[in-house]
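Re: Re: token formats

Sure, here are both.
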Amino acid sequence: MKRASLRTHPAHWPRPVRLALYLLTTLACAASGLLLAVEELDESRQSAQRQQQDLRVQYQSALNQVALRDGLRSRQTALEMQLVAQQVQLWRPDQQQPELLHAKLARRAEEHGLVLTSFQPQPGKLSATISLRGKHAGLLRFVEQVSRPPMPVLFENLEITSERGTQAALLMKATVSAPTGNAKSASVESPP
């Protein structure tokens, strides 16, 4: 029995079989070590590929921003030209007389069937407190007309009340001002 059990131990195997076992064990250890090394190298390769992909995305984003910047600069130039063109339609400094504002408001009120009952210029800038009497549709058209260029009028304060009477007219009290186009706002500088 001892002999049978000793024969099963690798030390009692014939020499070529033992050498084959040692060689097979050595190859298995080397293969597992190689597999671990290759796995580590593969992880570092995948990490480098992810980093390369991120850099490509960042590069593409930067290229898109550069392309958009040129478009935005041309859009900015176009808007600056529109601003200058719109400012030409504003009240010029040589038109800063309350009589011109009064004439514009009176003419527009008459066109829309309204009565300009009061016009009180305010000192310091081209503005006035006005009172108008008329129908609702006429008041709306009046506000729309005088707010449009050329030479628009801004409504800073607006109050509409119902007037008790026979014709059910409305009374509008408003503070209006004329925006002016001056040289300071006309010269718009573009950033570098």
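Second one below.
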Amino acid sequence: MANTRTAPSGTPTNVSQKHNKGGIGESTLRPDGTLKVTGEFAYSSDMWHEDMLWGQTLRSTVAHAEIASIDISEALAMPGVYAVLTYDDLPAAMKNYGLEIQDTPVLANGRVRHHGEPVALVAADHPETARRAAAKIKIDYRELPVVTDEASALAPDAPLIHEGRDDHHAGHVPHPNIVHRQPIIRGNVEEARKRADVIVEGEYTFGMQDQAFLGPESGLAVPSEDGGVDLYVATQWLHSDLKQIAPVLGLPEEKVRMTLSGVGGAFGGREDISMQIHACLLALATNKPVKIVYNRFESFFGHVHRHPAKLYYEHGATKDGKLTHMKCKIVLDGGAYASASPAVVGNASSLSVGPYVVDDVDIEAIALYTNNPPCGAMRGFGAVQACFAYEAQMDKLAAKLGMDPVEFRQLNAMEQGTIMPTGQVVDSPAPVAELLRRVKARPLPPERQWESAGEGADVRALPGGLSNTTHGEGVVRGVGYAVGIKNVGFSEGFDDYSTARVVLSVVNGEAVAMVHTAMAEVGQGGVTVHAQIARTELGVTNVTIHPADTQVGSAGSTSASRQTYMTGGAVKNTCEAVREKVLEIGRRKNGSYHPAWATAELLLEGGKVVTDGGEVLADIAELLEGEDPIDIELEFRHRPTVAFDLVTGQGDGHVQYTFAAHRAVVEVDTELGLVKVVELACAQDVGKALNPLSVVGQIQGGTTQGLGVAVMEEIIVDPKTAKVRNPSFTDYLIPTILDTPTIPVDYLELADPNAPYGLRGLGEAPTLSSTPAVLAAIRQATGLELNKTPIRPEALTGTL
């Protein structure tokens, strides 16, 4: 596996690594790594409290219905049951919640809008008792017609999923069943179309993907003596949860104290509320600690999914291969509640052209309200669906022009200075052509490797793997390429900030730094990077990470590839302020003894205060002896963004762009419809690799999730009933180690001068281009158009 570093362009960092072991740029090991791989790490589902009760949620068995009656008498009569709650038991005037639009009921109020909606809660002394009690609750449903797609949602007589909308998007959408609409108009598509020598059109379907994190939703709510509650929970955004939880409990925020517990993956699925409010309600109603842990079946109903989408594209190009125009319509199915749909629409529209120069565009993206499962944040956030479509279009254009697909992309690739369809200038490196060059230049893996192994051929190298369904008959190789563009951070004028508190003190004669943030560590390695930043900026070896909670300011969400940029930036800024306090103390105590205290640029390295020439002036621990700990908490904000214009879509809506390219090598049994992905190579610009090992891990993880939605992952929703048909890991398949190919990673470090250390958020970009690269390779192998994800065997054999 080759990891290539390229000298950065832009503002260099002014920190020294010479004596700061374990600082940025090193592959420092994760503090939680050993515990996780040995099974000793405590996840939220492992929490326990003396005398605790178990909570259970009763969910609707139909997708759209009026609730005529609820009878809880049999459940309440069961021994061991402490409480049964319905909508009528909610304690506050606020009974809904939501990330942006508060349209989601804590418990259904007279109507359910999707399969699996929470209707009632039970607390009991044993989880099985709680489950059985919930099963005894009798609900009389009067089923209503279901809305499941664009046609049924926008029909003149369509049932309204939410009547009487008064949210801030309601006034500019053409139909109440549209959550949000974002057009982007630039140039003149009709005139540009006249210049096109070739035009290609395509209609694409992207399936509903689940985040499929291994740790189910879980948490523990403990009532407190002051009438409040302490909540220990696995989430992505503590302070967002807090702002949604407190109002529906009827409590001030200071009486809802939240602490992050062990998180078993997230990928966007924990950005919304799941069991948090329910556990708190039961704890306050019973005055006992209440633990809720979803099983896998319930988890599929307990969180949002990736938006399924229909995408309609038209591209034109001149005969020499230059793009003339692009027109598209993107229809995202948001399901029954808004969740993050408005922001997903903004991403899908603004990134729909891809990493290409196209001056004339006509773009429309909408998200629908339907009776399908709610959809919201998932890794890639609107850009994934668009990338699948525009990359298929690039291959179609290249084929029609008789051009190499990589060379065609490079000819049209954006670069620093390119103007986006929104009018925003890409003001940092955009090495799109170089990323494509690198993946194409990589040697191809040997063909038909199973044959070279002789009689002892490993069937795992064949399509179908251990099912032993083929021995190589009808197996054809295909190679495909794709590249994508993703934004980093929260966009469209959102006040995106992170907070960090850093304490520097002396413990047993050694300077020790403590870093306290509310960042949710969901597996991305943020706690590792925070310690590396503190070591780099403060020159100390010993760094402790305080548990994330709401007793410090918000760190924002662990999403949008933003945490290293934002909370890492907050840690960096706060450490710089702490460092300046150390130097102030040094000048006060020792300034008269050495002129360098007043004139030299001073650094903290190896536990010492040193000049930029390396001369040691003082020991940090000795300087701080007798002093109060230095304790500073600061906020960090990125440069401001603005909302996209609701008519033209113009505006500097994004903070930063990031790019990744993939080459997929597949082998397909065209007779049986079986696919083996042999290699999925990636090249990505990361700006600055703060932890190279973690960088490679993130890129490989994102690539694997893109592989999953290419060939196997999809939540199946019955189009007639809107019921989920495969809520289990038996029927919803995710890539195992036998499905995951070799993933060579080649990363560039081209600094963004506007970002801390020049870094780029990197966790999402590889999820974009891996999917269309795999699809492109399968298309090359089979000659089929394949405009839907995931690819199933029957699509390859024509037996649909």
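The two ends are 39 Å apart (CA to CA). The longest strand covers residues 475-488.
- S.
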